Structure formats: C-alpha cells, structure tokens
What does this fold into?
Amino acid sequence: MSNSNSCLTTLFSGGGGGGGGFFSKKRPKRNTSSRVNSRSGKSSSSEPPSGQRTKTDVTMGKRIALFAAIVPTSCSLVFLASWGGAFLAPPAANAREEEERFSGSKSSKRTSAKGGSSTNVENEGEILSGKINLNGRRLVAIGDVHGDFPAAMKALEIAGVMDNKGEWIGKNTVVVQVGDVMDRGDAELAIFTKFLRLKKKAMKEGGDVIVMNGNHEIMNVMGDFTKMKEKEESSGSGDKGSSSANSNKENASPDSNSTNESSNESEKSPLKKASEQFQNEDPVIQGVRARRELFQPGGAFAMKLSKHPTVLQVGDTIFAHAGVNQSHVKYGFDRINREVSLWMQGKIKNPPDYIVESEGVVWTREYGGKDAGVKYEAEACRRLKSALALTSDPEAKRLVIGHTPQTTGVNSGCKGAVWRVDVGASRGIYGGTVEVLEIKGSRVRVLS
It folds into this structure.
C-alpha cells in the first residue's frame, strides 16, 4: 500500500473500512420495519415512525479540524490534497478509472426518451428539459449521496434499476437523483460516471437517469470548497462491507472512449492535464488549485454539470434540491435551468439569483421538516400548494427534495405534497440507511 493510501486508511477507518475510525462515534440503530423491502416486496406505511440511526463514523470536517496536530505532516498533506483535489489520492484504482472516464468522455447527442419532453432548452448540443412527460412510466427518486459510491450503488439496486453486476435492468424507469453528489466523500466522479453510463443504457429502453444540481455542485462551480471540510453536527459512518461487489459494479461495461495517454493535448483527460499543471506545487495548494481549475465556469467539470437540470417537473412531480415557491414557477423552470447552464459554461458572469439566495431552489430549508428546525409547517404548506397550483399539463401533485438529511428516513409532509429523500446515506454525513422513493401513477411508496 502506498504512503498516501496508508495515511487515508488510518485516518478514515482505523485500518478497517467501516466504523472505529478517527474520532468515531456510535449511534443506536433506526427501526426500519415500516418500509417496503425491495427484495421481499412487502408494503408499509408511507410515514415511518421516528427512530434512530445505525452505528456511525465521523465526518470529514471533524477529522480536518482536529487531526493536523496529531498525525505526521506528510499524512496531513496527503489527506488535505485528496479532499481538495478529489483525484490526487483516490481511494482505489477502480474509482480512479471511473473518474478518468467521466472527465475524458466525449459528449454525445442525447436522444429523447419515450414519452418525450416539452419546452426544452438547447445546451451544448444536448437537451436540458424543464418538463418531462412520464406517459405511464415508473419514477424513482434518489437523495443526496455525497461522494459515497457504495451508498449510491445500493440506492440503484434497491430501486430495482441495476443488478449486482452494475448493469441497467430498469427498462423504461425514469430515475431522478436530486443533487449533492459532490463533497464529503471521495468517489464523487466515479458516481457521476456510473450514472452517465446507466443513463445511456436506460435511454435505449425508453428510460432515463437524471442527475440534478444541488447546492454542493453550485458551490464547487463558485469555487467555494468549504463544505468539504465543514464540521457536521452529525457524525457519520457506513457499511463496513463495501468492496468486492462494488468494485465489480465500477468495472462493469467500460466505455470505449476512455482517454488514450498517447493522444494529443486536446484529447487528454482534464484530470491528467490539471495534475500535470500543478505537479510541482505543495500538495495542499496543488489540490485546491487543480479542483478550482476544473470546476470554475467554463472548466471541464463545470461543463459537465451545465448539462444537469436544477429544477424539473417529471409528470406530476416537481424535483428540486431544496424546494420551489410561486416565484420559481412563474419565472419558469426552463429559464432557471438555462441561466444556470450558461453561467456554468462561463457564458454569463454571475450565477442566477434563484441558486444563491437563501430561499432559492438549492438552499431553502422551509420544506425540510423537523430536521430542518421547522416546528410548524402550515405556512410552508400553503406556499407549496400555491406553487403547485401554478403548474399545468399536468398540474403537479407533489414536490420531491433532498438537502436536509432526515433522521427518520424518507418521509412526507404537507399531506403528501412534499417528499424528503435525503436520508444522510453518505458516510460523510452519518451513513444513514439507504432508501429511495418510488412513484407509479398515483401510488407513492418508500423502498428500502
């Protein structure tokens, strides 16, 4: 094992890979008996009883804040460079391969899924939709995954759209991940790559895999990396078992257009070019500068994110990372998506107000429920009802959000008008039990 991997193993897992890591902390296990088990098919109520969490590991923020005075300087530099650059010391060779595919893959023209979409906006040769028609297709919502590859893959398996070999089996299902793939974990690019590869296969069968922009994607494009080292109130851990199965998933169906090292400079992977550009610098500065180079507006990864919607209506369900209100509906989802995309591409100078203001679509906490500190949601429910009423063809019945980790798992509020799907699944949050939301016609249920 290399010095960098040895340092990271010690810091994150105490040499293991699950609990017992640096500043680890235990939490009691949450009761999940009221869920639908995707393997057994047993049904449950949509409103789970409150309960508690599983054993958890500690967050990246706590380690960054406290380990510098304890571990050797060499380990500190490797660790900080890894979270700053996200690619200088990746956790495993397979994750590195996924990241290279994402960063080096060429954009392809998107074909419309069965059922089509309406009111679309041109975006770098692809289509960025503000509304997608379901036409009877099954819909699945996945919450924030924050760089945790095993958690993201487990969500896809629970949803019944990916098998244990990492292949698409969802037929014409439409999957929407509500954003915040970025930060707090070390496999963010591998996750993006897997979603993209599954998307291509899903669309051949009339399905789709849509990854949205959350506040963490927005922050990275703004050059704000503070959330990668933010001290969390909750500590986190995850599954101790990760590895051989997930390794197989990462390697399944490799793309044919992976980067060739002998190719000319214009075809070289952005990861490789960035690491070469800053290779003689201090590792910490190298990581931060390289990451900023890649995610700044017009940068290689910002261009990838510019193809992701920020707010979206799929059938009679609205998706936004944090929420929507009347002003967002009146302004237009297409318009919001277009302006965010143009900013990420570096074609307009400033990010749109709707993604930076405190009540914006990726920031508001008013629909987050008790875990967002909302004691009385009646006023928020009235605002949501008014916003839903402004939609049409069809009129939206519900809003699905992430953003605020839910200590009771996926749950609903406002009499089913809002569904919260961020379960804190990433080990960078608190390694919550993975759950997803399934919508088939008028039936909405939680799968676990």
